Amino acid sequence: MSNEQRERCEKISPDCPPEDTIYGYVPNMGGNAFFGVIFGICTLVQVYFLIRYWRLWKGYTILVLLGSLLECCGYAGRILMSKNPWDGAATSIQFVLLMVGPSFLAAALYTTLRALVQYFEEQYTKLPAKLWTWPFVTADMLGFFSQCVGGVIASMTEKGPSLGTVGRVVMVFGVSFQAVVMAIAGILAADFALRMRRERGSVFRHLPKDLNIFLISLKVVFLLVLTRCIYRIPELAGGVGGHMMR
């Protein structure tokens, strides 16, 4: 189906089947509602934490709140698409928000790494505690804005086919840059943990239970966000409606 034909499609019909949408299917209502509710709950919890611990963790909490809110709204867009996969506004909302939401969660991870370095003692890291946040957050935001700019450019394909290619390249650069930055942060964090285990192995055996749970959650979130970044690279490189996006 040509772009002109797609622009005329407003709902599912014999001439506008779901197979010709950018995803090639109707998004599942139940699955997207589940994740939308999960991120909605996370958003409300972060609002509580923001009020309760404003002086202690406002930077981290604001970043997680924004990331959770964007994810929640993104899944709301997917829910609307489950009713009508040809809904242009819903498609744009979910595409952009689910693409940029994890950037704020990654930034929150970097602020946490700085706090952990300060908690466990800075002598075991190759990177000073003050450099654990702003360089990584700055780089992460650069990737974030690159994806946003790329998305805007890609949406202007009707003004010139080449703009779609340029936008796609910019988006791929943004998400690739984020993946590289996260990988570097992960390597440095792993090195810090190994040094701690080698020189102060007992410290990990006597951690408070809540901190231990938090560290496990931190690892899981880090791996999930990094996996998302890596998957997004070939997905965006294939273009909107490409094989991996379907």
Structure description:
By secondary structure, this protein is mainly alpha-helical. The chain has one domain (3-237). 76% of the residues lie in helices and 0% in strands. It is built from eight helices and no strands. The chain has helices spanning 3-8, 29-52, 54-83, 88-120, 134-154, 161-199, 202-205, 209-237. This is Sphingoid long-chain base transporter RSB1. It is found in: Membrane. Keywords: Membrane, Transmembrane, Transmembrane helix.
Tell me briefly what this model is.
It is found in: Membrane. The chain has helices spanning 3-8, 29-52, 54-83, 88-120, 134-154, 161-199, 202-205, 209-237.
Provide the descriptors you would attach to this structure in a database record.
single chain; 246 residues; mainly alpha; elongated; Sphingoid long-chain base transporter RSB1
